[in-house]
Amino acid sequence: MNVQNPTPFPGAQSAQVSFHRTELSVILSLYGRMVAAGEWRDYGISCLKDAAIFSVFRRTAEHPLYRIEKRPKLRNRQGQYCVVGMDGQILRRGHDLRTVLRVLERKLIRPVE
User: Fold this and answer.
1) SS3 for 95?
2) Alpha carbon of 16 to those of 53, 70, 96: distances in Å?
3) Which of 24, 29, 47, 112 ranks highest by number of CB atoms within 10 Å?
C-alpha cells in the first residue's frame, strides 16, 4: 500500500514568488514617503508563479504608475529587481533593491523656490 501526502489541488503547483519581509519594509518605506509628498495614493501586490509585483497607483482606477518587480530567475543575469514605468519601459534593474529604488526617490527631490 502506497501512502501519498495530500495536495490541496491536484496538478497545481503551490510555489510562487513573493516579497520577503525585509524587501517589503524597504518598498513600504519609500511608498510612505511618496504618499506623504502627495505623489502616490494606492498600491497592489501580485504574487505570481515567476514574479512578485508591487504596483503603485496615483488613483485606484488607473493603470499603475510604476511596477517594482522581483524575478528570481534573473538573479544571475541582470538582477532580480527592476522598476518598470507606466509605458512598460524598464527604468532600472539590479541586484540590490535599495539601489534600484533610487530611481524613484529622485522624484522626492524638488527645487525650493
Assistant:
1) coil
2) 12, 11, 21
3) 24
Amino acid at 96: D
- C-alpha closest to that of 60 among 35, 41, 45, 74: 41
Put residue 11 in one of left, alpha, beta given phi > 0 → left and psi -120 to 50 → alpha.
Answer: left
CB count in 10 Å sphere of residue 34:
20
Can you tell me whether residue 93 is helix, strand or coil? Answer: strand
Return the C-alpha cell found at 53.
509585483
pLDDT tens digit sequence for 9-68? 555 555 888 888 999 999 999 989 888 888 888 889 989 899 999 999 987 667 888 899
For cell 513573493, what's the residue? 18
**If DSSP codes are grouped into helix, strand and coil, which group holds residue 68?**
strand
